[in-house]
């Protein structure tokens, strides 16, 4: 106590205390100013929605209606949620010129910021599935390859092929390949059911099972073709075609050659 009392009487004590007080006040102010307030978040959200509305009116309203109510050639977007918009626009499927054909994956027209704004605007019209965040897409930690493979074969293989390479459907439609698709877009497709795909709700396939499916797809992407040429991994169709054209063709050639030699 005597030592502390001696330091308190030191002539440098007062300036040091003042400096420490100023540092504490400055640090507290910096932390408080760096954390956005609720009103600032609301303003930022409103600005994003307004930006998304402008994008929608310029690039989407001609088909989906001025208020996203839909039209003769495009469905209503009220209630589809941000996840549906992110899937369709971020994968380049929308916008599209000919709505009578199936939308194909291609390079996106809008930037990620514009896609986020457009999704925020559509989400503001009515409640719907939200874009899954990074905390929900930790498939490497929470998923199971074995479980994902079984789930994929039971729920997805009849359209997307047992190896996820895609396949033909009725009326000129097709199920696209799931190879090379971002995990967030795979998850969004399962919860929104784009085009001919059904919606897999959390009661049908739980979030943990969805992560297992994603993990299996990513495992299948990286799996090497240990047996040689994969032939597109579309099953017995290409294998049968190869055997028919080469194997049967060679047998026919040998038979013709033997017949000519017998003359």
UniProtKB/TrEMBL annotation:
Gene3D superfamilies: Cytochrome c-like domain. Binds 2 heme c groups covalently per subunit. Heme c 2 binds at residues 156, 159-160. It is found in: Cell membrane. Its main location: membrane. Its EC number is 7.1.1.8. The keyword Signal applies. It comes from the Bacteria. Residues 1-34 form the signal peptide. Keywords: Cell membrane, Electron transport, Heme, Iron, Membrane, Metal-binding, Repeat, Respiratory chain, Signal, Translocase, Transmembrane, Transmembrane helix, Transport. Heme c 1 binds at residues 60, 63-64. GO terms for molecular function: heme binding; iron ion binding; quinol-cytochrome-c reductase activity. It catalyses: a quinol + 2 Fe(III)-[cytochrome c](out) = a quinone + 2 Fe(II)-[cytochrome c](out) + 2 H(+)(out). Residues 47-126, 143-221 form the Cytochrome c domain. GO terms for cellular component: plasma membrane. The cytochrome bc1 complex is composed of a cytochrome b (QcrB), the Rieske iron-sulfur protein (QcrA) and a diheme cytochrome c (QcrC) subunit. This is Cytochrome bc1 complex cytochrome c subunit.
